[in-house]
Amino acid sequence: MNDQQPMAGKSHKLWGGRFAGGPAPELEAVNRSIDVDFRLWPFDVQLSKAWAVALSNAGVLTSEESKELGFGLDEVARRIQAGVTPEAGDEDIHTLVDRLLHEVVGSVASRLHTGRSRNDQVATATRLWSMSACARLDAMIRELQQVMITQAESLEGDVMPAYTHLQRAQPVSGAHWMLSHFWPLERDRRRLAAAARAAAVLPLGSGAIAGSAFPVNRTVLMETLGFQAVSPNSIDAVGDRDFIAEVLFALSMLGAHLSRLAEDLILFGSSEFGFVRYGDAFSTGSSMMPQKRNPDALELARGSGARMLGDLVALLGTIKGLPSGYNKDLQEDKRSLFDAVDGMTLLLPAVAGSLGTLTFKRERMKSAVTSSMMATDLADYLVRKRVTFREAHGAVGRLVKEAEDAGIEMTELPMSAFKAACSAFDDDVMQELLPATSLSHRNVAGGTGPASVRQQLEAAKASLA
Ligand code: ARG
Question: Is 33 designated active site?
Fold first, then answer.
C-alpha cells in the first residue's frame, strides 16, 4: 500500500507508485466497487478514527495529528451525509474517504494509512456493517412475530383444519396454526444472533496479511469498535468471510420460512379455501379483471426467498478454492450480503403488514373441519376402551368408507353402523366427533389442546419480552 498525495487532474488512488502508466479503463471499470460498497462509509470513518487513535498510542502519530485526523474524519462523514457523491476515479469507499480526508485536512491525511491495508479495513467495515444489519433485521423479525402473536390471540378459540399432504388432516386451534409460523422465526433470530457473534471478531491490525508493523493495541481497538474478540491469525483475518456465509444462511432460512407462511396465506385467500381476506392496503388489483384481489406482497415473499438462496450460493462459490489471505474475488462478498439484507428489509415489513391487515373468516375455517377429520379421535376413543390401535384403525376406516359411499357426514351414520364396525362403540361416541373434543384431548406439551395453546402463547410472548 502506498499513500499518494492527490494530484490535480489525476484520480486519487491508494496505490500506483510502481506503475508507469495508469490502469486501462476496462480494468478500472471491473475493479471499481464504490457503487456497491459506498454504504460502508460510516463504518470506514468509524474504524479510521479508532485507527488514528491507535497509531497515536503506538507512537506513530503525534496526538495533534491524531486529533486532526479525528476531526477531519468527522467532517468527511458530514460531507458524505450531506450528499457528496463518488467521482469517476473513486475506486472504492476507502479511497473516497481518503480523498475527502485529504481535501479536509491536507497532507496529514497521508499518515492515516500507516500499518493498515484495505484488506483489514474492508473486512473490519463489512463486519461492523453486518453486526448492525443483524440487529436491524432482528428488530424487523420481532415486529412480524408480534403481529403473529396478536393474530394468534384472536384465533385462540377458533378451529380450523390442519393439513398433511395438503389434505385435510385434523382439527387444530387457529392460534396453533399461526404460532407454527412463529417458532421458525424464533430460530432464525437465534441464527442471526450467532452470525452477528461470528462477525464480532476484529480483523483491524492484521495489515495486508502479516499483521501491522506498528505496536497498535488491538484490544483497545476491539473495545472501541464494539467487537467481542480479536482475530487470532492475520492471514485468516483478511480472508475470512464465514460470517457473511452465516448471515446469508440465516437469511436463506428466514426466506424459506417467509415463503412457507406466504404460501399458506395465498392458499387460504383463494376462493377454494376462503379462510382469509387480504386487507385493502395489502391487496393489488388486475389491469383486466375488475374482481381481482391479489396478494402480491405475499407472492413476492414466496418468490424472493430464491434470491437469498442465490446470494448464499454465490458467496460460497466465491470462497471455495481461494488461496489463503485476501484475494480480489472477495470484493464480490458485499454484493451478495447487501442484496440479501436489502431484500429482507423490504420483505419483512411487507409480510408483517399483509398478515396484520388480513381478516380471518372464522366460520369458513370452522366449516372446513369435516367429521372424517375426527377419524383418528374415534380410533383413540376405541383405544381408551382397550381396543388395539390396529383394530380401531380398521374399524374406523370402514365407517369412513360407509359415510363416504353414502355421501354423508360420519355424524349422520346410525348408531347401528358404529356398533357393527366395532362393538366397543357406545352412545358417547357422538361427542368424539366434535372438533372441540378432539382439541381437548391434546393438552400434551406442544399440542393443540386449549391449555397447551395458552401455554404456547405465553411462551411466545416471553420469548419476545
Ligand atoms: N474494495 C476492496 C474489497 O471490497 C477493498 C480491498 C482491496 N484490497 C486490495 N488489496 N486491493 O474487497
Answer: no
Distance (Å, whole) CA 227 – CA 202: 6
Task: Report residues whose beta carbon is within 6 angstroms of any ligand 1 atom.
Answer: 33, 37, 92, 118-119, 122, 326, 328, 330-331
List 63, 286, 367, 423, catalytic entry: 286
Q: What is the pLDDT of residue 10?
A: 61
> What pLDDT sits at residue 9?
44
Ligand 1 pocket test, candidate residues 119, 126, 327, most atoms within 8 A of CB: 119
> Is residue 286 annotated as part of the catalytic site, yes or no?
yes
Question: How does pLDDT run across 21-72, given as a tens digit for each residue?
Answer: 888 999 999 999 999 999 999 999 999 999 999 999 999 999 999 999 999 9
Low-confidence ranges of the chain (pLDDT < 70): 1-10
Model confidence pTM above 0.90: yes
Find all residues with CB under 8 Å of 88, minimum gap 6, and list them: 11
What is the whole-number distance in angstroms between the Cα of residue 252 and the centre of ligand 1? Answer: 26
Question: Which atom of ligand 1 is nearest to 91's Cα?
Answer: 1
Please give the Cα distance from 288 to 286 (Å, whole number): 5
168 residue type, one letter: R
pLDDT given for residue 290 in this prediction: 79
Which value, in Å, is the radius of gyration of the alpha carbons in the chain?
Answer: 31
Structural domains of the chain, ranges and CATH numbers in brackets: 25-114 (1.10.275.10), 119-367 (1.20.200.10), 371-464 (1.10.40.30)
